[in-house]
Design a protein that fits this description.
It is a single chain. The protein is an alpha+beta fold. The chain is built from 16 helices and 13 strands.
Length: 365
């Protein structure tokens, strides 16, 4: 079985994640290809798409949100993701059990003895008027009937798990600050969520396997689970197994992949890329060493924005009103500093609407 080293996996990841070469695909197609973008920080997906698409216009993503073609909703790993409307409707019911368990993992004591099906029905009844509500407002509407758990536990269980919701615009629009207001996913989109198949088959699970490998492969089953949070996918993997090819990584793990997906030559040059906080190019794996050193793994869950140099995390970045600030994690060569500065100036222009191209790169300690 062919062994793929970390550099081969890195280049495959960059190609699948649209980070090796920017692409001209429409924004909606990019969101679909990526299987959504993690989006608990509302402005971060704009940087994620800017790094992946040529001539990205942030208004295009805002228009997709207001036009109800893209939604912000809790899904993979119980995290807010930016997804196409079609994927949100197709995938939501497959994630129901995981979402409940993830919330219970935080509030098991508070919700002990609560009939979650009854709570769900009551939440849907309150939201049936299609009036946008915050999590706290919804919880307070039911707090008299369920006084013990407290509004935080009630609200998170309702909004993140029991009642499929959408976070309404202007939340998530370009350069817009807005609180979270929720309405039911099906009422916002005018279509019902796809129900689980009555025969017990798992077409959605199989679709998730294929879609994940298209955007993240080659990858192990543990990587797939880390991306979506679903533990019950071994049967789906087995069902599509004959469609796939297999490799091993340097640790001996079996990796699965689509046969015709790109696996570039490991020596393919990789341009500097600025990634937003919580980008799935890093978080979408259990073994993240293909793109970030173990010593810096904590950055990926702490919300640090990172810079890829030669395809790997080599710096963090932040931005003021007119300057992109880069802090290297290791010593950069002169050529690398020049490439980081060039890409940083482009990012500064994007973030400032072309008012500033200032970038500062700190000296390595």
């Amino acid at each position: 079985m062919t062994v793929l080293d970390s550099r081969a996996l890195n280049r495959a990841t960059l190609a699948r994640q649209l980070l090796l070469d920017r692409t001209d695909v429409p924004v909606l197609d990019a969101v679909a290809h990526l299987g959504g973008l993690q989006a608990q920080e509302p402005q971060e997906p704009f940087v994620g798409l800017w790094s992946r698409l040529r001539a990205f216009d942030p208004a295009a993503l805002s228009d997709l949100l207001t036009g109800r073609h893209v939604v912000r909703t809790h899904l993979m790993r119980r995290t807010v993701h930016l997804l196409t409307a079609d994927d949100a409707l197709a995938w939501r019911s497959r994630h129901d059990a995981m979402l409940r368990q993830r919330v219970l993992g935080n509030y098991r004591r508070e919700l002990d003895g609560t009939d979650l099906d009854e709570l769900a029905a009551a939440g849907r009844a309150v939201m049936a008027d299609d009036q946008p509500r915050s999590m706290t407002e919804l919880a307070r509407a039911l707090a008299e009937r369920w006084p013990t758990p407290g509004t935080r536990a009630l609200g998170e269980m309702l909004v993140a798990a029991l009642v499929p919701m959408v976070q309404l615009p202007p939340r998530g629009l370009w350069r817009t600050k807005a609180g979270v207001r929720n309405v039911p996913l099906s009422s916002w989109l005018g279509r019902e969520i796809d129900p689980p198949p009555p025969d017990g088959s798992d077409p959605v699970g199989q679709a998730l396997v294929r879609r994940y490998l298209a955007a993240f492969g080659p990858a192990a089953s543990a990587d797939l689970r880390a991306w979506c949070g679903l533990a019950g996918l071994p049967a789906a993997v087995a069902a599509v197994r004959e469609e796939l090819v297999t490799f091993r990584d340097e640790r001996g793990r079996q990796l699965l992949d689509l046969p015709d997906a790109p696996r570039p030559d490991p020596d393919t040059p990789a341009p500097v890329r600025f990634l937003p906080a919580f980008d799935n190019a890093i978080l979408g794996y259990h073994d993240r060493t293909r793109i970030i050193d173990d010593a810096h793994r904590g950055l990926s869950v702490a919300g640090a924005r990172v810079v890829l140099v030669d395809g790997r995390v080599a710096a963090t970045w932040n931005a003021t009103a007119d300057t992109v600030l880069v802090t290297p994690l290791r010593r950069l060569s002169g050529a690398d500093r020049t490439a980081v500065a060039e890409q940083g100036r482009e990012l500064a222009l994007f973030l400032s609407d072309s008012d500033s191209d200032r970038v500062q790169i700190a000296e390595t300690l």
